[in-house]
UniProtKB/TrEMBL annotation:
<feature type="site" description="Important for dimerization">
    <location>
        <position position="173"/>
    </location>
</feature>
<dbReference type="GO" id="GO:0046872">
    <property type="term" value="F:metal ion binding"/>
</dbReference>
<feature type="region of interest" description="Important for dimerization">
    <location>
        <begin position="238"/>
        <end position="273"/>
    </location>
</feature>
<feature type="binding site">
    <location>
        <position position="94"/>
    </location>
    <ligand>
        <name>a divalent metal cation</name>
    </ligand>
</feature>
<keyword id="KW-0560">Oxidoreductase</keyword>
<dbReference type="GO" id="GO:0042803">
    <property type="term" value="F:protein homodimerization activity"/>
</dbReference>
<keyword id="KW-0627">Porphyrin biosynthesis</keyword>
<dbReference type="Pfam" id="PF01218">
    <property type="entry name" value="Coprogen_oxidas"/>
</dbReference>
<dbReference type="GO" id="GO:0006782">
    <property type="term" value="P:protoporphyrinogen IX biosynthetic process"/>
</dbReference>
<comment type="subunit">
    <text>Homodimer.</text>
</comment>
<feature type="active site" description="Proton donor">
    <location>
        <position position="104"/>
    </location>
</feature>
<dbReference type="InterPro" id="IPR018375">
    <property type="entry name" value="Coprogen_oxidase_CS"/>
</dbReference>
<keyword id="KW-0350">Heme biosynthesis</keyword>
<dbReference type="GO" id="GO:0004109">
    <property type="term" value="F:coproporphyrinogen oxidase activity"/>
</dbReference>
<comment type="similarity">
    <text>Belongs to the aerobic coproporphyrinogen-III oxidase family.</text>
</comment>
<comment type="pathway">
    <text>Porphyrin-containing compound metabolism; protoporphyrin-IX biosynthesis; protoporphyrinogen-IX from coproporphyrinogen-III (O2 route): step 1/1.</text>
</comment>
<protein>
    <recommendedName>
        <fullName>Oxygen-dependent coproporphyrinogen-III oxidase</fullName>
        <ecNumber>1.3.3.3</ecNumber>
    </recommendedName>
</protein>
Length: 301
């Protein structure tokens, strides 16, 4: 098991994504390195008020600790209390244009150790798309690239991880999906370390081709105050999910991570409207009826 190779891959992936998004936006990310008192640290790359991205962040973290937090050991009660090492790249991009979707992506690696016992390790990650206005070609493209990333490793992964994503990124108190999904997996230690790591690398390597073509198609579309208003309203749902349900946010805060880096995923402008409903027959209503419904985007194509 080569944890150094995982770290090298994650750092290179962070650099690659930041570099490509700087080309798209025309503005540079700021790099902010930090150290965690309990052990480890990371680098947050953040772009705010860009030409295309209203906010974007690509975080790398590598932290150590004496006890695994409850959010990380929930699926592995046998490792509670072990010392741990966790590393990963996590990103969220919130474009300014309401026709361009928000995207979230992460890949991560955990290892829990105890003297005299075999280490317990697993990977996690995925990517998911949160549009404000729905375009079928965008949804199909994003899901097709997710499928392509996993196909060489096991034909069952995409349908399994797609379903997991639909179930995970679901706002229970609203009874609605956060977006149109993608893929999500956790506690992933299939076959052996090499197979699992190669699968995760493929997911990371496919992220830019899943998202950038959609962003470039939508970032120049004309929009007005109505679209910005709906975008801010839907971003409120994003905030609700992250603060109430997201395991990554909970793990970061429970492990005394850097709040500024953990919460950089929040959209910069958000609003809540009391009991607001979209008008029937509008593009806003169509998002609810045709897109955020846990649909099988590849089944009809």
């Amino acid at each position: 098991m080569d944890t150094a190779a995982v770290k090298d891959y994650l750092l290179a992936l962070q650099d690659l994504i930041v570099s490509r998004m700087e080309q798209v936006d025309g503005k540079s990310f700021i790099r902010d390195s930090w150290v965690r008192a309990e052990g480890g640290g990371g680098t947050s790359c953040v772009l705010e008020n860009g030409n295309v991205l209203e906010r974007g962040g690509v975080n790398f973290s590598h932290v150590f600790g004496a006890n695994l937090p409850p959010s990380a050991s929930a699926a592995h009660p046998e490792v509670a209390g072990r010392s741990f090492e966790a590393m990963g790249v996590s990103l969220v991009f919130h474009p300014r244009n309401p026709y361009a979707p928000t995207v979230h992506f992460n890949v991560r690696f955990f290892i829990a150790t105890k003297p005299g016992a075999e280490p317990v390790w697993w990977f996690g990650g995925g990517m998911d798309l949160t549009p404000y206005y729905g375009f079928e070609e965008d949804a199909v493209h994003f899901h097709q690239i997710c499928s392509n990333a996993l196909a060489p490793f096991d034909g069952s992964y995409y349908p399994r991880f797609k379903k997991w994503c639909d179930e995970y990124f679901f706002i229970k108190h609203r009874n609605e999906p956060r977006g149109i999904g993608g893929i999500f997996f956790d506690d992933f230690a299939d076959r052996d370390f090499d197979h699992s790591f190669q699968t995760v690398q493929s997911v990371g390597d496919h992220f830019l081709s899943a998202y950038v073509p959609i962003l470039e198609r939508r970032m120049g579309m004309p929009y007005g105050e109505r679209e910005r208003d709906f975008q801010a309203f839907r971003r409120g749902r994003y905030v609700e999910f992250n603060l109430v349900y997201d395991r990554g946010t909970l793990f970061g805060l429970q492990s005394n991570g850097r709040a500024e880096s953990i919460l950089m995923s929040m959209p910069p402008i958000v609003k809540w409207s009391y009991q607001w409903q979209p008008e029937a027959g509008t593009e806003e209503a169509r998002l609810y009826s045709n897109f955020i419904i846990g649909k099988d985007w590849l089944g009809n194509h």
